[in-house]
Amino acid sequence: MEVDVLKRVPVREQEPKVRAANFDEVCLGYDKEEAMAEAVRCLQCKNPQCVKGCPVNIDIPGFIKEIAEGNTAEAYQVISKYSALPAVCGRVCPQESQCEAKCIRGIKGDAVSIGKLERFAADAAREEGIKPQKADSLNGKKIAVIGSGPAGLTCAGDLAKLGYDVTIFEALHKAGGVLSYGIPEFRLPKSRVVDAEIDNVKSLGVKIETNVVIGKSTTIDELLNEEGFDAVFIGSGAGLPKFMGIPGENANGVFSANEYLTRSNLMQAFDESYATPIIAGKKVAVVGGGNVAMDAARTALRLGAEVHIVYRRSEEELPARVEEVHHAKEEGIIFDLLTNPVEIHTDDEGNVTGMTCIRMELGEPDESGRRRPVEVKGSEFTLEVDTVIMSLGTSPNPLISSTTEGLDINKWKCIVAEEENGQTSKAKVYAGGDAVTGAATVILAMGAGKAAAKGIHEYLNQ
Amino acid sequence: MFKILKKEYLANNIWLMDIEAPRVAKTCQPGQFVIVKMDEKGERIPLTVCDYDREKGIVTIVFQTVGASTEEMAEYEEGESFMDFVGPLGCPSELLEMPEEELKKEKLLFVCGGVGTAPVYPQVKWMKEHGIDVDVIIGARTKDILIMEEPMRKIAANLYIATDDGSYGFKGNACDQINDLVKNQGKEYTRVIAIGPMIMMKFVALLTKELNIPTIVSMNPIMVDGTGMCGACRLQVGDEIKFACVDGPEFDGHLVDFDQAMQRQRMYKTEEGRAALRRKEGDTHHGGCGHCS
Question: Distances in Å between the alpha carbon of B16 and those of A288, B10, B151?
Fold first, then answer.
């Protein structure tokens, strides 16, 4: 295989026209030959900047070196020292703004394709049946982890490797949190990737109890005082979907992105043999510009709709990953940028018939540093749609904070926790991920789960 | 897995089941609900808690077959199990939070309709156990579809049965019965708790507003996760949007926008109808014939 060291080895993808009509994974990943060719591009820096860009500090040159030498199993073992979910991270991490952004190769040419190599190592290890290494013996201490999303799985996996007896409590009927209910199959295959990585965490000795809602079925105080847990980690996720507060928002045909994606991903409504229904819509507007908005839009497209992304700022400010925006465009999603909804219209039976929007222009920068969108007077127009999906972020779920005495929350109602060790205001209780930061990324939640595992281990070994 | 310990047919396609669910039974309270998922491919079905035995670890549910999923549920037999059973979800009835001396001053009237009679039962039972006498109205179209009359009679101070066709008890609907009690029999109530079909709760709330009696209703909108994550169950309550699963399911009946709630309940009518037909006649309904868009 010929390699131009300045260019990354391209990754194979499903053709846009084909994939727009199926739920199979878009990106097909590297094969061994391609992965080895790409791995050789790594400069093996003595002072690797990429590691500093990784929220869980994976030894990136270390695992890439193993791939370059054809040692796939060894590459996987290097990664699994740092990450419980490499097949997930290789797919959904924003590498372009983390590890790959710091890659020295990127100064003159393309950065090394670290994400795709991570994915390759994890996928290959799975196919060969290689499991992460389990602790030699248990240390006799019990930890409860609330939520089986990226933060919880990482925290649980790290503690299990240190010999703790860990139980994860999950409110839904299926483990995985946002990996199961939020990110679609075409970006993150469920049974092949997510379930397999959860099985890896279980193979470390972690128990997962589904259908337990902490704050309702039982409380944190009961876990500590009655069920004999030595510490608790809260990784309960982001919470309640936000709406705009515009007229018509409760009409039939207006959904939160969480609802739309939960129906399609967790309940598998796109597959007719599952009982949960989903309204596909013929013409759909997705309001918002984040990764979740892209996921909802591309789901609606696959269910057969014409889909518009309605976003109040310009393309430059889209919070979604560049790769997701690029894929969405390739598949035929229409971007109505600098556009903001004003009102949703309905017929006599309360079904959505259209949405009045107003054009926006960018003014002075606001507190986030992005230029503030300002309405263009008199520019209202109506987008004829039958379905509107609101993807505006979430506000914290009060279930746990309201039932746990002594657990401080901040003015945004997020749980207050130390960044370096996850310690909350309540003794023996740690927290991390979206429950602390508000909606963020999978890898940041994993970083927080990792920090809390370290914090809990240090606390219990004082 | 959650085992069905008892199954009983009540009336009018309404079934009662005792489910072995120790964690739920340990903490559930009147007013809260559970979510049942029968098997791998099933829906998450929210059902209000109808009774519980903390020691035996049993939770009682009552459901009416209204579509493909509930029909399938009614085919489960004693000894079989549901794959998932989660709860308790939502908030307990606000009456439970009231200081007992204040609660004892209240004159409560519970108004139930149809399958809504079942979730009223544990509330009335709780009141009885706490030494509080309450009146109960059960409304039904006709005598044959009444449920839970006998158990309710044992715990209510006064039980009034109202049938639309006069086949049993008072002739008239639940609202007529309330009017009769308040206007003709001189009964005074400080609070009404109405649980039943949305249309019944709507008209009870309209009447009690006129009579100036504070009223609590229990809402049963479409839900998916039941933990606040999806917002499918949102309701307009006064100027606010509330999620029935975390803020409710009980709300001030005088503030709920029932017309909107009923409209939202019809959202999946087409999909549900198709699923019901698929169950009855096989997978032959794909639309496109022009008769069922």
Answer: 44, 7, 13
